[in-house]
Amino acid sequence: DGGITQSPKYLFRKEGQNVTLSCEQNLNHDAMYWYRQDPGQGLRLIYYSQIVNDFQKGDIAEGYSVSREKKESFPLTVTSAQKNPTAFYLCASSLVAGGTGELFFGEGSRLTVL
Amino acid sequence: GENVEQHPSTLSVQEGDSAVIKCTYSDSASNYFPWYKQELGKRPQLIIDIRSNVGEKKDQRIAVTLNKTAKHFSLHITETQPEDSAVYFCAANAAGNKLTFGGGTRVLVKP
């Protein structure tokens, strides 16, 4: 069953703690993306990767970090430097890089910082 | 960078009527404009897209129009049904090979 899997679905953390969100895809897609979704603000790009061992900052990268050591995996770490980390996080992948192909989204991870 | 504005933020229509959502973009180099639908509690999914070499594209009850000169594109849904109730996002590609999304439109189809 092909697709993109995010975990955990819900996550609660105390302020000041780092947290890592997992994103795995078995679609053999080259490109992977992390978006943040807040009410009324659409989907804002955090980081993206077009190929293994390479990634670029999106529009709101401050306070986040990523790695792309394997084609199928693109974990996102929300660090203590992120001032407002409570949000819904969506991971996506696309067959080709370049921003011109269909994005396939995971089901999302909802992070709540207490 | 690319800036995508989407209007309206909410739209309520009677079942059977048409719905229109409009987006404007800032980067004249953008050449790919997809629309995503996100039903409540679900992931966004692509419903239609248009590339800059065409002005209009249709798929059953949905259509997208593009005006490159004015840098705006629109989603048209005809004969709306309750299952069309969702949040719709427009997007445009930007320099750096990434998509920039609009703020979303919450569509409610009233029976």
Structural notes for this entry:
- The complex is a heterodimer of chains A (114) and B (111).
- With 114 residues, chain A is mainly β.
- Chain A is globular, with a radius of gyration of 13 Å.
- In chain A, strand 5 (43-51) and strand 6 form a beta hairpin.
- Chain A has strands at 4-7, 10-13, 19-25, 31-37, 43-51, 54-57, 64-66, 76-78, 87-94, 104-105, 109-113.
- Chain A contains no helices and eleven strands.
- Chain B has 111 residues and is mainly β.
- Helices cover 0% and strands 59% of the residues of chain B.
- Chain B contains no helices and eleven strands.
- In chain B, strands 2, 4, 5, 9, 10 and 11 form a six-stranded mixed beta sheet that branches. In chain B, strands 1-3-8-7-6 form a five-stranded antiparallel beta sheet, with no helix packed on it.
- Chain B is globular and about 40 Å long.
- Classes of the chains: A mainly beta (114), B mainly beta (111).
- Chains A and B meet through strand 5 of A and strand 4, strand 5, strand 9 and strand 10 of B.
Summary keywords:
heterodimer, A: 114 residues, mainly beta, seven-stranded mixed β-sheet, four-stranded antiparallel β-sheet, 11 strands, 49% strand, B: 111 residues, six-stranded mixed β-sheet, five-stranded antiparallel β-sheet, globular
Helix and strand layout, with pairings?
The complex is a heterodimer of chains A (114) and B (111).
Chain A: E1 4-7, E2 10-13, E3 19-25, E4 31-37, E5 43-51, E6 54-57, E7 64-66, E8 76-78, E9 87-94, E10 104-105, E11 109-113
Parallel strand pairs in A: 2-11
Antiparallel strand pairs in A: 1-3, 3-8, 4-5, 4-9, 5-6, 7-8, 9-10, 9-11
Chain B: E1 4-7, E2 10-14, E3 19-25, E4 32-38, E5 45-51, E6 56-59, E7 62-67, E8 72-77, E9 86-94, E10 98-101, E11 105-110
Parallel strand pairs in B: 2-11
Antiparallel strand pairs in B: 1-3, 3-8, 4-5, 4-9, 6-7, 7-8, 9-10, 9-11
